[in-house]
Amino acid sequence: MRFALHAALVAAFALVPLAAPWLGFVFTLVLAKGLAALGVAILLRAGLISIGHAAFYALGAYAVAAMSENAVSDLVLQLIAATLVSALAGALIGLFLVRYRGIFFAMLNLAVSMVFYTLLSKMYHLTGGTDGLRVDTPTVFGAVIDRDTLEPILLYGGLALVIVVGLAVHRYLKSPMGEALPAVETNEIRLEYLGIAVPRVLLSAYTLSAALAGLGGGVHALLVGHVVPDLAYWTTSGQLVLVAVLGGIGGVVGPFVGSFFLEIVRSFAVIYVADTWNLIVGAGLLVVIFFLPVGLYGLLDRAVRRSAK
Which InterPro entries match (predicted)? Predict the structure, then answer.
């Protein structure tokens, strides 16, 4: 039944923008933020809350912008660069941060992201300062395309990419390294007694989570066509944690469900109740925390299982 649920979600995601084309932009943004939230969810499985992953999201976006400015216009190369640069930064920063737990880990991530935000804002000659950088429409395997063609490519290409990445992350979570993450939260000392190197487990998770955030940031940059320092601001990091918790951290699909909920609520609230969308999202988060410990995806999964009986 779970396969049928996933297939139905993918089909709905692919078909709805055909009936309402304006939702294509929103759905692509769902994919971009879902990728970053998936990275945050991986760390949450180990009990580590990162309030600074927007730094990697912004780093991926700025990597795409930098390549665009330097005439490297291929879409695939830009996304690969965004992922690799963020993964490298995650590996280097993670070497220092994975030694900490709890509030110290959260606050150090926040500090790193705010330092990065300040650098993006002040280094005008490189980053454009608070004005940001423009991202030109990329080429796709050498073919020149316009903006109207790019959006469907990002939506459906992004959906295919998310499926592939989701399967790879699912495989990672079922591997010994992935299975060790929940054990880090419950009994880290016992893992050490069993001969499992906890720092290596956490560093691999941190690097993977940074790579996912960078990939999401790259998609965001290509979609919006402009990057600004606010992508690295702490409120963006908070949104990624919110999305992961809303959707549920038990599997790969949860963060994308949470991202869908957040972006859809935001889009419709801007039209109908512009000043209350934070209230709606906050109320949704409270409901999830008190009544849905497995998140919105857990609610969908449970409903499908009951209907099958």
Answer: ABC_transp_permease (IPR001851), LivM-like (IPR043428)
The per-residue pLDDT for 261 is 85
Rg, Å, the chain Cα set: 19
Which residue type, as a one-letter code, is found at position 187?
A: N
The pLDDT score that the predictor gives to residue 269 is 77
How many whole angstroms separate alpha carbon 179 and alpha carbon 149?
41
Q: What does the pLDDT read at residue 169? A: 94
Q: Compute φ and ψ for 265, nearest 5 degrees.
A: -60, -45
Q: How many CA atoms lie within 13 A of 209 on its CB side?
A: 36
Bridge partner residues of 163 (DSSP)? none
Q: Is 196 left (phi over 0), alpha (psi -120 to 50) or beta?
A: beta
pLDDT at 307: 65
The residue ranges of the chain whose pLDDT is under 70 are 1, 274, 303-305, 307-309
The two tokens of residue 153 are 């490519």
What backbone phi and psi angles, to 5 degrees, belong to 196? -95, 125
What tokens appear for 243 in the block? 């999305």
Token duo for residue 265? 């609520």
pLDDT of residue 59: 96
Q: How far apart are the first and last CA of the chain?
A: 11
